[in-house]
Amino acid sequence: MNFKNLNSVVIGVGWVILALFVWNISPTSYIPTPLQTFGAFPRLFFERGLGEALWNSMSLNFEAISIMFVLAYTLSIATVFPYPYGKLFKPLATLVSSGRFNGFVGLPLVFMALFHNPHWVKVALLVFGMGVFTVLSLVKMIQQIPKERFDHSRTLRMNEWRVIWEVVVLGSFDQVIDILRINIAMGWMMLPMVEGRFKFEGGVGALMEVDSKQFDYAAVFCALFVILAVGLLQDYAIAFFKSIVCPASEIGLDKA
Fold first, then answer.
1. Can you tell me the distance from the alpha carbon of 136 to that of 1, in angstroms, rounded to the nearest whole number?
2. What is the enclosing helix (H) or strand (E) of 96?
3. Which of 4, 79, 146, 185 reaches 20 to 30 Å from 42, CA-CA?
4. Which residues of 158-174 are buried (b: 16+ CB within 10 A; e: fewer)?
5. What is d(CA 121, CA 195) in angstroms, rounded to the nearest whole number?
6. Higher confidence at residue 137 or residue 27?
7. 44-250: what CATH class?
8. Is 180 left (phi over 0), alpha (psi -120 to 50) or beta?
9. Within 10 Å of residue 65's Cβ, how many Cβ atoms?
10. pLDDT band at 256 (very low <50, low <70, confident <90, very high)
11. Which residue, 85, 103, 83, is CA-closest to 93?
12. How far is 30 from 108, CA to CA, in rounded Å?
């Protein structure tokens, strides 16, 4: 570990210690102390089934991410298909991305009417919540690809489908991973809310909903920190995946 990384770690640890200190002296009566929060972990894990609930949440999240990625990425790339196909998909991408202005109040009723299954309603809510922003970001990313890249590929006598493959798919995959990394974090943040609304199949969100109704705030805060830890681990795994799949994207990023 070089000096720059060590310095960052020390500063990060300092902020964590300061946050724990402020939390510990908080005058609010219903907020548990750090010791009470972390002390609830053994009870949650061994008595309340936190491990199984976390596995259910991660499985649901992975299923929603897989579906969302296939749909959003396919639709975004379709906007640059050769004429006239791209013209057909651009309005659809705009319509889908406009869904980011819609709330989650009435959507569960719509998805329940369509799927009649709480599991698929939860998946649909997560896919919608992540997908509308992912489509918007991917389309904007594709639009910002320099025209010179397309022209250079055409000078190499590539047909239009090969140009899309080389320039849009392969040439911008590192940016796609960054966009997914951001929106997947949004999906993980929404997951407890969706699971709390539909307690079918359990999950960490459903567990937190029960604990909040029983006024077991130490368990609720403990579950929140477990969700935070898993989310950070997920984010690190995506970053590590990017460094392996797209090593060239890391060149020149080590700035002072």
1. 38
2. helix 85-97
3. 185
4. bebeebbebbbeebbee
5. 10
6. 137
7. mainly alpha
8. alpha
9. 20
10. very low
11. 85
12. 31
State how far Cα 9 lies from the chain centre.
25
HSE, side-chain direction, 13 A CA sphere, residue 221: 16
- Provide the mean pLDDT of the chain: 88
Token digits of residue 6: 């060590």
Residues 6+ apart with CB under 8 A from 37: 218, 221, 222, 225
Segment 201-213 mean pLDDT? 85
Residue position matching structure tokens 């919608």: 128
Whether 93 has a pLDDT exceeding 90, the answer reads yes
Q: What is the pTM of this model?
A: 0.86
Q: What tokens appear for 148 in the block?
A: 């010179």
CB atoms within 10 A of CB 231: 17
Cis peptide before 84 (omega within 30 of 0): yes
Give the pair of three-digit tokens for residue 46.
């061994």
Domain ranges of the chain: 44-250
The pLDDT assigned to 202 comes to 79
Q: State the sign of the Cα–Cα–Cα–Cα dihedral 20, 26, 31, 36.
A: positive
Residues 98, 89: Cα–Cα separation, whole Å = 14
What does DSSP assign to residue 32?
A: P
Dist CA 205 CA 194 (whole Å)? 7
For 108-117, what is the mean pLDDT?
88
Q: Is the pLDDT of residue 227 over 70?
A: yes
Residue 90 near residue 79, CB atoms below 8 Å? yes
Confidence (pLDDT) at 2? 56
Res 253 pLDDT > 60? no
| Alpha-helical regions (H) of the chain | 3-24, 34-39, 41-46, 50-78, 85-97, 107-115, 118-143, 147-155, 160-163, 173-197, 204-213, 217-245
